[in-house]
Amino acid sequence: MAVDKNPSGKRDGKPSSGKREGKSRVSNTDNKKGLRSTRHGDVDKRRADRKNSAESFSKTRSENEGAKKKAFSKDSDNAYKGNKPFKKAKKMETQASIDKRVEKDGIRLNKFIANAGICSRRDADKHIVAGSVTVNGKVVDSMGYRVKSTEEVKFDGTTIQAEKKVYVVLNKPKNFITTREDTHGRRTVMDLLSGMGDVRVYPVGRLDRNTTGVLMFTNDGEMTKRLTHPTYGVKKMYHVTLNHSLKQVHLEKILDGLHLEDGSIYVDSVSYVNNAPKTEVGIEISSGKNRIVRRIFESLGYDVVKLDRVMMAGLTKKNIKRGQWRFLTQEEVNFLKMI
User: Fold this and answer.
1) Mean pLDDT across the chain, nearest whole number?
2) 270-301: per-residue pLDDT in tens?
């Protein structure tokens, strides 16, 4: 049987309460707080230290970036991306250097023919193979032949020259034929292009004698093909004036598509002109068939009193008086080349 060696409950000669003394617990807590304070320091002081460190880092980084920019501006050719230098950009070739290179190496024969405004380069290849082109009096049937500036080129017996590309838009009036020459002595649209000098340009597409509005001219054979060939679907917009009001049922028929003597025809859009009588209609179409707009309305029993082309391939007659013309801007030329 176990015997209690301390029946009085004393510990080290003192009475025991059976619980830990509160003083000791408080003392231990205070010691821990003191240990934290000693280990990490004052909270406010630490926050201030972090703020000072961040400001110091930001200042140093700003100074370094400023030094880099300064060095870069002094010698931009030695700019670095990481540890690798940028390659120098090639200088844009000037027109003078282009002319010098062409004079030395020449240009391909098909391009020379296209630059003369005869036809596109693809069609020029066909004419070359067919033997229609001579250089210095000799037939050249090689499509890779390069023409020098000193050589004489003839197409079907007529001397041709590569000309600077010219692009013109005319606001065509009535009673002018869309052709370069007329065997019956009638006035042509070429009579309206005064002040162009010796530059030869050709109408892009056709407008009837009594049709007015936007008509473009150029000596760029490639662009002419793009704007007239049906595969490119170049849109034209017309303001049509009829002899009597267009019925709604006929407008819907046009939208659905019509069958004419040379096949079916579909328009891109057609509607009445806002704030105008129903005799006036706007129509947008991509087809380049002969007299197509007039034939659409004639097939439904209407006579076209007036026909005015207000837009072609994005070109308009804005600020161009009837019978006047202007050169296209470079932005307009660039747009047409993207078609």
Assistant:
1) 80
2) 999 999 999 999 999 999 899 999 999 999 99
Backbone angles phi, psi at 74, to 5 degrees: -75, -35
Joined tokens for residue 86: 């940028």
CATH of residue 206's domain is 3.30.2350.10
Residue 267 and residue 255 in contact, taking contact as beta carbons nearer than 8 Å? yes
Instruction: Look up residue 173 and give its two tokens.
Output: 């009036």
Quick one: 247 and 199 in the same domain?
Answer: yes
Provide, rounded to the nearest whole percent, the portion of the chain with pLDDT above 70: 69
Q: Which residues are known to be catalytic?
A: 208
In which residue are the tokens 């700019």 written?
Answer: 79
CA triplet 208, 221, 115: central angle to 5 degrees?
140
Q: Which residues of 209-218 are buried (b: 16+ CB within 10 A; e: fewer)?
A: eebbbbbbbb
Give the predicted TM-score (pTM) of the model. Answer: 0.59
For 271, phi and psi rounded to 5 degrees? -160, 165
Do residue 179 and residue 144 come from a single domain? no
Using alpha carbons only, how large is the chain's radius of gyration in Å? 43
Residues 229 and 309 reside in one and the same domain: yes
